[in-house]
Design brief:
The structure is a single chain. The longest helix has 8 residues. It is globular and about 50 Å long. The protein has one domain: Jelly Rolls, CATH 2.60.120.200. It is built from six helices and 17 strands. Helices cover 11% and strands 32% of the residues. Strand 13 and strand 14 form a beta hairpin. It has an eight-stranded antiparallel β-sheet.
Length: 330
């Protein structure tokens, strides 16, 4: 099997054809009446999300997963325009696969891999990614990608006129994933970091969900950043911390270990739950009412995959994760 960096060199010669303990569980009726937090609290304890058994290793990604409302960014630049290649919704949903960056694993999961060094989405972006970007337009190219429109969603705290224009109001993203490999070389402050889920706004991110495992540790941490619109990050630990000197985090997550996450927004409330098989769920909330995402120009979209947070080290170094379930709702 080729390495991600070999794949980039190969792809450059061709064209893509497209340039904390929780409350007792609530009933679903109670959860619906009580909002996003109650929905998270009603999740079964220690039970991974999604039906993993349905996945078929002989199928292409779009045959195992609904991909018509996503497009894909790859760490390649086949047309030499200085920006990472993207795969639009219609192509992605038509059995697109590119091993070893984006392909069906032997167990039916969807593999995302990206090297430390490769093409980025803009001159201002430091890191590579193999990552899905939510596209509510579902291939209708008459709707623009950006803006408060039917391709993107808004917070429920936005003015009613903006909510009418948007493709959705509030929302949830859930996934079941195993991080298979993280970077092990380069700047110690960057080693081992990967973002596996996001909410992105115009320029900032209401949430970036991280997994990090340091080279000397057997288990990794999970934490998230909330970026104030135009301001600084607020960090929240779920397991362990983002420290580059952290010893093995208590109750951490090993490479290859499946876990689930669920991210929800209701008006200005952010709710994040981490689920590990057979263990108590961990739920954290964050009040975003002072973060500036209710403003009339702000629009949102979910992202998931691997967004490598190390751009140093060996050319052959990379991150990889396999997703077994993901679902976006509004």
């Amino acid at each position: 099997m080729s390495s991600p960096i070999q794949c980039i060199k190969k792809l450059a010669a061709i064209s893509l054809c497209i340039s904390t303990a929780l409350m007792a569980p609530l009933s679903m009726t109670q959860a619906a009446d009580s909002g996003a937090l109650a929905v998270h609290e009603a999740l079964p304890q220690g039970k991974l999300l999604g039906n993993i058994d349905r996945l078929d290793p002989n199928k292409k990604p779009s045959e195992n997963f609904e991909l018509i409302d996503w497009h894909l960014t790859l760490p390649t630049d086949t047309d030499d325009d200085g920006r990472a290649d993207t795969v639009p919704e219609a192509y992605l949903a038509n059995k697109f696969e590119f091993n070893p960056l984006f392909y069906t694993a032997n167990d039916g999961g969807l593999v995302f891999a990206t090297p430390n060094k490769g093409a980025t989405t803009s001159k201002n972006t430091k890191y590579t990614r193999t990552e899905l970007r939510e596209m509510l337009r579902k291939g209708n190219t008459r709707i623009k990608t950006q803006g408060v429109n039917k391709n993107n969603w808004v917070f429920g705290s936005m003015h009613s006129s903006g909510k009418r224009k948007a493709g959705g109001v509030d929302g949830s993203l859930e996934a079941t994933v195993a991080v298979n490999h993280v970077s092990t070389t380069g700047d110690i402050k960057k080693v081992g970091r990967v973002i596996i889920g996001q909410i992105h706004a115009i320029k900032d991110e209401p949430i970036r969900l991280y997994y990090r495992k340091l080279p000397g540790n057997t288990k990794g941490s999970v934490y998230f950043a909330h970026e104030i619109n135009g301001g600084d990050d607020i960090w929240t630990n779920l397991i362990g911390s983002r420290s580059h000197t952290l010893s093995d985090p208590e109750d951490g997550i090993a490479l290859g270990e499946l876990f689930s996450y669920k991210i929800s927004v209701e008006k200005d409330l952010l709710v994040v739950t981490l689920i590990r098989q057979g263990k108590p769920n961990i739920t954290k909330t964050l009040d975003m009412s002072e973060s500036g995402y209710h403003l009339s120009n702000q629009y949102m979209y979910f992202k998931l995959g691997v967004y490598n947070q190390n751009n140093t080290g060996d050319d052959s170094d990379f991150v990889q994760a396999t997703f077994y379930h993901f679902d976006n709702t509004h």
